[in-house]
């Protein structure tokens, strides 16, 4: 299995912890629907739910690794990629050719999902390490994954990478090869930029965050720069000039990258405060990354720390604000809700992400975590310090969601949980059939708004009108434009919430909405739009494409250079 190199890095930095008392920048304060949440189990995912992305209003894709999954392709072989119908819970096999094990995913600006990287086990003649897989969502059950590594591939091996969609609708694939060998990034489609014509670009940040920098967090900020975080550190990264600007490190020695996995979220971007970006990183572990991970114990306590940083000059000067979840979690998932809150689900209270080694008391050949965290906790970023976390009314699950589990918001506003498979192959243990679970927040039991008239594309700063039907007592509405992201290993690539400027007509039947101001605030690509009542009840989130739906820019010279590199 994967092995981290042993070095002498990793002295715990005892930064002073702050208590998060400063007032929130997220304004105006919101109200939320109160009451009980419900939890239902509906079917299984057919392939283990390692990677999960909503692709249409009614479907999701699930990518696993090559293994003996129960879902079969037509020719009688096990599938490892599938499409899930969110209404019927039927799974349809998809046909990846290479091994998607620990790949990443981001949508391009034209709505095509790009899956990149993976594992070298060759099943069908294609090595997954340099795979680029394309999936253009459809409504009729005919779309499939296309890949052909002799025609298109990454310029270098990527296993456990992160990715992000940027302002021109391209994707940056960021990260290593599960070894020390490839601390670099590259663009798809490839660019001729900063002296690197189509080729990978070295990343000093990734080189300096070994030994725990896999699945780095990468987020596009409203000024077009990227926030990148791994291990214990974070930077602002300008890809146009290839410049890194260091940010303060995460306080109190907490590490948050695989296998010491935490999760991260870009908090809602709100016009009222000029879209000031604020990030929050939760969970992980204070375990040293300088130790051979095969000696890590499943009983080592996880971290309960959440660290929040406002990415303005003042916010950076003030440093990370520390808060604590009611329960420690390693391998959590942080999912944005349309009401502006964040649900923290999945994971364990002790141990770390799957690695072969010492693992007392746990089932599974690759599991190093114990004491599953069964109860989700919801976080209100606008709440008063000390009163932001709550699990009130939220039932506990009974299904452990440990290594290789995922979660996502659905268009209907529920939270879908999938995965957990701490084995190399599903035949080794049947403890984790990867049942699908759906959490319905309290808002789903209230009278809901609905709307019609969302255009197929929503361009920047352009107005469109929706005809809305609001519950009788509605005093006002806001509009949440959301990228539901691509989830794997607790990292939610491109997950985003942008509140759009909107105006309700006096008869409360017409809502005039203005598209996001710039492609830096919402990179061109797919989005789900929720109309949310002042009481915190969202409509169904219909799908649109922000921008024009055009394909990202193509530089044929850079593509030629990138495929001229002999594949690994
Ligand atoms: C990949 O592309 C090459 C070159 O066009 C072609 O010969 C080959 O058949 C393709 N492979 C697959 C699996 O489509
Ligand atoms: C990439 O990682 C794989 C799996 O660990 C390893 O076999 C391979 O040598 C690495 N390739 C490069 C070029 O570093
Ligand atoms: C959406 O949620 C509502 C309220 O929970 C439920 O009645 C409805 O069946 C759901 N629809 C879908 C498509 O999931
Ligand atoms: C989107 O762009 C990519 C990259 O150029 C291309 O491969 C893909 O076919 C495009 N998808 C659509 C729907 O045009």
Automatic annotation (TrEMBL):
> What are the boundaries of the signal sequence?
1-17
> What are the Galactose oxidase-like Early set domain coordinates in residue numbering?
448-542
Database matches in InterPro entries = Gal_Oxase/kelch_b-propeller, Gal_Oxidase_central_sf, Glyoxal_oxidase_N, GO-like_E_set, Ig-like_fold, Ig_E-set
The Glyoxal oxidase N-terminal domain covers which part of the protein? 79-443
Which residues span the membrane? none
Key word Signal present in the record? Answer: yes
Superkingdom: Eukaryota
- Does Signal appear among the keywords? yes
Q: Which UniProt keywords apply?
A: Signal
Report what the protein is called. Glyoxal oxidase N-terminus-domain-containing protein
- Give the originating organism: Mycena albidolilacea
Taxonomic classification: Eukaryota, Fungi, Dikarya, Basidiomycota, Agaricomycotina
